TrEMBL record:
Signal peptide: none
Organism: Paracoccus simplex
Coiled coil: 292-364
Stretches that traverse the bilayer: 12-31, 397-415, 457-475
Protein name: GumC family protein
UniProt xrefs under InterPro entries: Bact_polysacc_biosynth/exp
Highest taxon of source: Bacteria
Keywords recorded for this protein, A-Z: Coiled coil, Membrane, Transmembrane, Transmembrane helix
Organism lineage string: Bacteria, Pseudomonadati, Pseudomonadota, Alphaproteobacteria, Rhodobacterales
Length: 494
C-alpha cells in the first residue's frame, strides 16, 4: 500500500490529468446523449366466469406470438409510422432505418402465471408492451397504439379463425354426407344383388333347403302316384266298355285325388285347381260323356298333372342350385360387404367428428359474440412518463470516474515498470534480502522545489478548470448553455 501511495504521489499530475479528462469526457457523453422516455401498457387475459370447455382456439401464449409477429411486420410498422407521424423531423433516414428504429424501441413481454404449466391455457397472465421515444407523449402514444392493435387483432384473428373453421367444417360435412350416401347406396345395392350370399341369410337358406327337400319328396311321391294311376288307366282301357260304371267311379276317385293334391301344393286361386274342379263336376254329372272320352280326358288330365309336377320339381332343382352357388360365394361376399361396411363406418365416424367440431365452433362463436370467452383487456393504458428512462447520470458518472482512475493507475504502473528504482529501505530489503545499515532522507534541490511548486499550481489549475467545465457541461453555470443533443436514428420519433 505504501508503494502504491508513493507511486500515485509521484505520478499525481499524470493521474489527475487522466482522471479529470476521463470524467469530463464521460460528462460530455452523458449530457450529449439523447433522452429517451419509456412508457408501458398492460394487457390482461380476461377468463370467462364459467369454463365452457369448448374453446378450440389457439392458446393465448401462441396467439400472442402470432400477434407479435404481425405487429412487427414491415407493413404494420410502416402504417404505425404514417399513422403517428413518427420521424417527421428526420427526413434523411431511409424507410429501413425508420422501421428498424421503431422495432428496436418496442418490446412485447408476456407474464406467465406462477405455478401453472407452460402448456396450460392459464399460463399467460398479462402482456406488457413497452415503447421508447424522444418525448413522453410519443412514447405513450406508441405503446397504446400497439396495445390497441393487440386487443383488436386478437379478436379479429379469432373471428377470422372461427369463420374459416366453420367454412371448412361445413364443406367437409357436405362432402362426407354425399360420400356416406353413395356408400350406403352401394351397400344396399350389393346386399340386394347378393341377398342369398349374405351372412344373415345362411340360416334361412338352410331352412329353405330343408323345405325344398320335403316338397321335392312330396312331389316325387305324387308323381309316382300319378304314374301308377296312368298305368292303371291304360291297363283298364280295354275293359272300359264292359265296365263303364266301374271306370267312371275310378275316374271320379282319381279326379278327387288329383284335386286334393293340387290344393295341397297350389294356391286356392290357381287355374289348375279351377280346371280340376270343373273336370270333377263333369265326371259327377256323367252327362253326354262316353266311356272312351272319359278315359281319354282322364289320361290327359294325368299327363297335365305330371307336367306340372315335373316343372315344380325342376324349379326346386334350379332353386337348390342357386342356393348352392350363393353359399359358395358367401365368403367372398362377406369380405366385400365387411370392407364396404368398414368404409361406411369410417365415413360415419368422420362425419360425427366433423359435426361435433362444427357444433363446438358454433358454440364458441356464440360465446364470443356474448363476450363469454377468454379475451385480452387493456388493463392499464400507457401514460406519458415524467422522467427519462435512461437518466441514470450518477451511475454513468461514477462508472466514468472509476474507468478514468483505473486507466490512470495502469498508465502510472506501466511508467514505473519502465523505470524501476529502489526508493525506500523496505524496497531495498525486499529486492536484496539484506537490510541497509543506514538510510539517509532525500533532500530536494532548488530546481526540484521549483518543479514541485509548478506541479502543485498545475494540479490546482487542472482541478479548477475541470470543475468549471463539468459545471458547464451539466448546465449549472448561468448564461452558458450545455452542449446540444447529438441526433441519432431514434430521434425524431416525437
Amino acid at each position: 500500500m505504501q508503494d502504491l501511495i508513493s507511486m500515485i504521489w509521484r505520478r499525481l499530475p499524470l493521474v489527475m490529468t487522466i482522471v479529470v479528462l476521463g470524467v469530463l469526457i464521460s460528462f460530455y457523453l452523458i449530457v450529449s446523449s439523447p433522452r429517451v422516455y419509456q412508457a408501458s401498457a398492460v394487457i390482461q387475459l380476461d377468463m370467462p366466469a364459467v369454463d365452457q370447455g369448448v374453446d378450440s382456439s389457439l392458446p393465448a401464449s401462441r396467439r400472442v406470438q402470432l400477434i407479435e409477429q404481425r405487429l412487427m411486420a414491415r407493413a404494420n410498422l410502416r402504417d404505425v409510422i404514417e399513422r403517428l407521424g413518427l420521424f417527421a423531423d428526420t427526413a434523411g433516414l431511409s424507410e429501413t432505418e425508420k422501421i428498424g428504429a421503431l422495432r428496436s424501441s418496442t418490446r412485447i413481454e408476456s407474464i406467465t402465471a406462477p405455478g401453472v404449466s407452460v402448456d396450460s391455457r392459464l399460463a399467460l397472465a398479462a402482456i406488457v408492451i413497452t415503447s421508447q421515444a424522444e418525448t413522453p407523449a410519443m412514447a405513450a402514444a406508441i405503446a397504446n397504439d400497439f396495445a390497441d392493435s393487440v386487443v383488436n387483432r386478437d379478436r379479429e384473428n379469432r373471428k377470422a379463425r372461427i369463420l374459416e373453421s366453420q367454412e371448412y367444417l361445413r364443406s367437409e360435412e357436405m362432402r362426407l354426407n354425399e360420400q356416406l350416401s353413395v356408400q350406403e347406396r352401394k351397400v344396399v345395392e350389393y346386399s340386394a344383388r347378393n341377398e342369398d350370399s349374405l351372412p344373415t341369410s345362411q340360416e334361412f337358406l338352410q331352412t329353405e333347403l330343408a323345405q325344398l327337400t320335403e316338397i321335392e319328396t312330396a312331389l316325387d311321391r305324387d308323381i309316382m302316384t300319378l304314374q301308377r294311376e296312368r298305368l292303371s288307366l291304360e291297363a283298364g282301357g280295354s275293359a272300359a266298355d264292359a265296365r263303364p260304371s266301374a271306370s267312371l267311379v275310378q275316374q271320379i276317385r282319381g279326379a278327387e285325388i288329383e284335386l286334393a293334391q293340387a290344393r295341397r301344393t297350389l294356391d286356392p286361386d290357381h287355374p289348375e285347381i279351377k280346371r280340376l274342379e270343373e273336370s270333377l263336376a263333369r265326371l259327377n254329372s256323367g252327362a253326354g260323356i262316353g266311356g272312351s272320352d272319359v278315359l281319354r280326358r282322364q289320361a290327359e288330365l294325368i299327363d297335365a298333372q305330371l307336367v306340372k309336377l315335373n316343372e315344380q320339381k325342376a324349379g326346386i332343382g334350379t332353386r337348390r342350385t342357386e342356393i348352392d352357388q350363393a353359399r359358395a360365394r358367401a365368403p367372398e361376399v362377406t369380405r366385400e360387404l365387411e370392407a364396404m361396411q368398414r368404409e361406411q363406418r369410417r365415413l360415419q365416424d368422420r362425419y360425427n367428428e366433423i359435426s361435433r367440431q362444427l357444433a363446438q365452433v358454433e358454440t364458441q362463436q356464440m360465446l364470443m359474440e356474448n363476450d363469454q370467452t377468454e379475451r385480452f383487456v387493456l388493463l392499464e393504458r400507457a401514460l406519458p412518463p415524467e422522467y427519462p428512462a435512461l437518466s441514470s447520470r450518477k451511475k454513468s458518472a461514477v462508472m466514468g470516474a472509476a474507468g478514468s482512475m483505473t486507466l490512470a493507475l495502469i498508465v502510472a504502473f506501466a511508467l514505473e515498470l519502465m523505470n524501476p528504482v529502489l526508493r525506500r529501505s523496505t524496497q531495498f530489503a525486499r529486492a536484496t534480502g539484506t537490510r541497509p545499515v543506514i538510510s539517509l532522507p532525500y533532500r530536494l534541490s532548488e530546481a526540484e522545489l521549483r518543479a514541485r511548486r509548478r506541479r502543485n499550481i498545475y494540479l490546482v489549475v487542472l482541478l479548477v478548470v475541470g470543475a468549471v467545465v463539468a459545471l458547464w457541461l451539466l448546465g449549472r453555470i448561468p448564461g452558458l448553455p450545455s452542449p446540444g443533443v447529438v441526433p441519432t436514428p431514434t430521434d425524431g420519433m416525437g
